[in-house]
Specification:
heterodimer, A: 122 residues, mainly beta, Lipocalin, ten-stranded antiparallel sheet, 1 helix, 10 strands, 57% strand, globular, B: 387 residues, Immunoglobulin-like, ten-stranded antiparallel beta barrel, five-stranded antiparallel sheet, 43% strand, Lipocalin-like domain-containing protein (chain A)
Chain lengths: 122, 387
Amino acid sequence: MLLTIMFSCSKNTTELVGTWQVKSKYYKATYAIMEENDSIKAKVLYYNDGTTIIRKKDKKEYYVFENLKPSKNQYMDAVSGATTTNENKPNIALQPIHKDTLKVTTYIRNKPLNEIWIRINN
Amino acid sequence: MKKAIQFLSFSTVLSLVFIACSAEDIRNIADPNGEKGTPTQTTEVIPIDINSDGFDFMAKMQGHWVGNNLVINDEYPFFAWDYRAISSSHTFGIHEGGSAGNLFTSFFVSNYKGKRTIMARNGGLLNGIYRTSYFVLDKVENKDNGRYYRLVDAIGGDGIMYMELRFPNNTDSLYFNSYTSGLGNRIPNRHMTFKGKRMHSELAENAASATGYPQNTIDPELDFTNGFNKDFLYVKEGLSQANSATFLAVQETNNIFDLAPQSGDPYIITDHPRLAYLQVNIDRGALDNDQTLLLFLSRDPFTDTNGYFTSNLNAFKTALHFPVLSIKENQFLMTYMHPGTYYVTVVADIDGDFSISEGDITHPPRKVTIEPLAEQQITIDNITIQN
């Protein structure tokens, strides 16, 4: 699983720590980006695609990504960072466009889906 | 008229629903303990007994569902499923993607694992790959936000793949989502997110009237009292037995009449009652052979008598099929067609945006009525009117 975060301006993980709401007409979601040791992960606080609903109070925890660590000019999970194959491409990229706005690009077969995440609190 | 309605290529959608071809995640809502990316286990399948609850799904599912869809990372601002009865206990909907292939999901009453229940048959044809998978109803719930149904892989359960459908309480609409694992390559995650409203109800009502739908009876060909023939089930590489109720066949060409019998699928295209075929022949006239053509089958005409796009924007919502034809393709066989009357519109997509837009070339309305089980043809010519 290749997970990478690319920061154009900063590798300071605290910049992203907080609660973020996804702007999508297909589903509603709120994620909490948090630090864990020297990496970051995004926990699902709320997710509702019309049929499946995940709530913070649910017993099981879900994560959008986790274990992302800095590697050169980007953040990458430990497994991806240890591999050097041609498949080692990001499948999610986070680009801060404002301190409270993230452009999140998910890649499937190198085709992007762009979303905007809005910080709703710290 | 520009961007009055957007119809995008479905080829990518199809590439994603063919689970044998896909092994990548969408939005990875994964377990926190490193389970993502690891093979998943099958789970026990416990069918719902519809003699107690759940049979109402069959009535609810009927309709022309018009809305939008997100499939993995492809957005479809316009998308539609046309669900109509084809027997007293079987309703069928398909998306015909065109040259690339198609995708259907039908729902029917059956017996499975000792229960009278509802099953689904999902699959289609893509670039020489024929796949069908069977699902069984295992959840029916009255939630705060509507009536909810879940169907899981009839062998692998929700560990392999499942679909969820919810009908909200106060609106005549449908949420239809699917979750797949690449046949066990990963924890199932969101694959398709469709949201639509029921429209043009008379289409399904007429089919229900003709078939006596819905009834809690079983078409003999769709009785799975004895399960599936294990000799024909697809067994994934590395496994000793099937982890999914999936049938698969591969061939260089997209010939469903060859592939369906090869797959071992217990119910194939020729077994469907009522469904018909329509061969659409296109006389390009002065249009270049390399010009991409969009094909629309709709309840209402997309063009006026002069051949220009109609100013009645509601007409575009009546689109029932919207395939995209490959460059140089001048013939297309529409399969699994519900009988009825359709307007057939060919659009030369001049700006290549896969949408109806200014500058595209069209023609005056052409109507065809298809009888049950018919093999019919129509030739579209005079594609000369530039909008």
